[in-house]
């Protein structure tokens, strides 16, 4: 594992942006060939790819070599790199990572007001297959419907997914909007629901309705963010398992490495992989979650079916 590096050009990381776990365990759970980390971030190095001046937080650098070393350690051979809001709509870090990955990575972009169709087509050729909408107030003001429609118009015809980063009650607040978006629509990190509100909260009821709609996907990542119990995150793992069972054909999973904007220390990514044994407890279900679904959603080449 490559240790995180603070480059001289980088500002000091913000509170809530700890370094990644220093020694993640090697997972006991063997992952199927082609297993995909469907949500991770590549950050910096800031000396080469400076963070956006208008960013709301500063992370610890997590360059592409460090992320690749983690994936090799965990048994992951594919990845989807999500553009972080600390980079804004400057996609040089993402494009550099995709170019070096030899087809093993896809990307999710942040399309700004000034991002042109030509730039979007460049991103598509590089391997970007979706764009993200952040509704979290610590990242930016929630996008208006006019802003969303402007992005949809510029990505029209490319088959990109729409990824939504919401938290708490917002999945219920935006249920009508989510239903109106052209599919596929992907809700990040278990919708970051508040488990203190109970298993029948408006947010969880809305999330389950959306999953039943047939066009909404879910990332069952972020159990460490959602859990109220701490490792091994049994409450959030139980929720993730129930949602995978509900819609096994429209779920994907990711590490969320390097875990920015969190409370406390970063989780052990090896533990997060091992928890997949509970989230997707059957081999066929695990393959669907980790291989087949991300291949479909992010346009990876399909792997041969298991006999």
Features:
globular; disordered N terminus; eight-stranded parallel β-sheet; 307 residues; 12 helices; alpha/beta
Describe the structure.
- With 307 residues, the chain is of the alpha/beta class.
- 34% of the residues lie in helices and 12% in strands.
- It is built from twelve helices and eight strands.
- It has an eight-stranded parallel beta sheet with strand order 1-2-3-4-5-6-7-8, with helices on both faces.
- Strand 4, helix 4 and strand 5 form a beta-alpha-beta unit.
- The radius of gyration is 18 Å and the shape is globular.
- The chain starts with 35 loop residues before the first strand and ends in a 9-residue tail after the last helix.
- The N terminus is likely disordered.
- The total beta strand count reads 8
Low confidence ranges: 1-9
Instruction: Give helix % range.
Output: 25-40%
Average pLDDT for all residues: 93
**Main sheet attributes: strand count, strand direction, barrel closure:** 8 strands, parallel
- Report how far the terminal alpha carbons are from each other: 34 Å
| Class derived from helix and strand content | alpha/beta
Task: Identify the strand order in the major beta sheet.
Answer: 1-2-3-4-5-6-7-8
The proportion of residues in beta strands is 5-15%
Which overall shape is indicated by the principal axes computed on the Cα atoms? globular
**Helix/strand order, N-terminal first:** EHEHEHEHEHHEHEHHEHHH
- Cα-atom radius of gyration: 18 Å
Helix segment count?
12
